[in-house]
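Fold this sequence, please.
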Amino acid sequence: MTCLASQYAVNEVERNLLAKLPAATATFQLILKAAVTIVPPPSSSLVRSVADQAHAKDVPILAAAIANEVDFLATFNIRHFRPRKFPPLIRRPGEIVAHIRRSLIHLLN
């Protein structure tokens, strides 16, 4: 499993953490450095092509997920995304962790 993020998404998380939970910013930075690969921004044409599939501020995040052919897009704002094509499946982080756990248990059986 690889965790990918665009710099746009990282900036969005940092902005939200600073506004709502500033004490978590240092922990986020540690996780980011240890476990996340930053991907290049999506092309402008891809961003335009998915503009109607997410809230305006989330369109670049969806476009980056599509450009990098991810299986899941983790967000607490699942209602902000309306992709016409799957993957990515839009899920809350806890739902993705649960899916990974189920997959690992299945592999062990």
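The mean pLDDT is 96. The first helix runs from residue 7 to 20.
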